[in-house]
């Protein structure tokens, strides 16, 4: 027997090919429309990406700010701790030192000033007034008014006028009779006084010459 013949695959034949005229028209005339759609989609994608980028930037800025604030807080805490430690050390040092003994007594004012004017020669002594209790008591004891009262009582008793009852001593207020303070004159006042004294001296000299 001879070789067998090869079997061929028989493809199914298309019965009919039909074209859709509307689809063909849309495909042929829709190039511009499809182009505009692609542009719109690209714009939407770009806007979406820009929004995402802005969000990422804002997130990074917030993170950087929080990190800076935290760093500042840590530095301020360290500074406070150092300040507290220095304050506690200074307090311990001050406690170890001697206690405060009050203000020092001021230097007493006691000096003399000399003024010379033609025929006159004056010397002014400035002394400090006592402000302590002992000084006030001494001023009361040695007041001139008290001496006058004691002198009057002694004279009355010595003369023998004992008919009238002796009045009790009155307390003298040292505050009322205060010590007079010396006041320095200004330049203008000095000039006026010097002129007056010169005029008076000239008048006296003329009167002496005439006499």
What does this protein look like?
InterPro entries: Nucleolar_protein_12. This is Ribosomal RNA-processing protein 17. It comes from Talaromyces islandicus. Its main location: nucleus. Belongs to the RRP17 family. The protein is mainly alpha-helical and 211 residues long. The chain has one domain (21-210). It has helices spanning 21-29, 31-96, 133-141, 144-159, 187-210; strands at 110-117, 120-127. The protein has a two-stranded antiparallel sheet. Residues 142-163 have low confidence and may be disordered.
Number of strands: 2
Strand content: 5-15%
- Placed side by side, the strands forming the largest sheet appear as 1-2
Calculate the mean pLDDT score and round it.
Answer: 72
Rounded Rg: 61 Å
Head-to-tail CA distance between termini: 202 Å
Largest sheet: 2 strands, antiparallel
Poorly predicted residue ranges:
142-163
Number of domains: 1
Can you count the helices?
A: 5
Q: Indicate the structural class.
A: mainly alpha
Shape: rod-shaped
Question: What is the succession of H and E elements?
Answer: HHEEHHH
Helix content: 55-70%
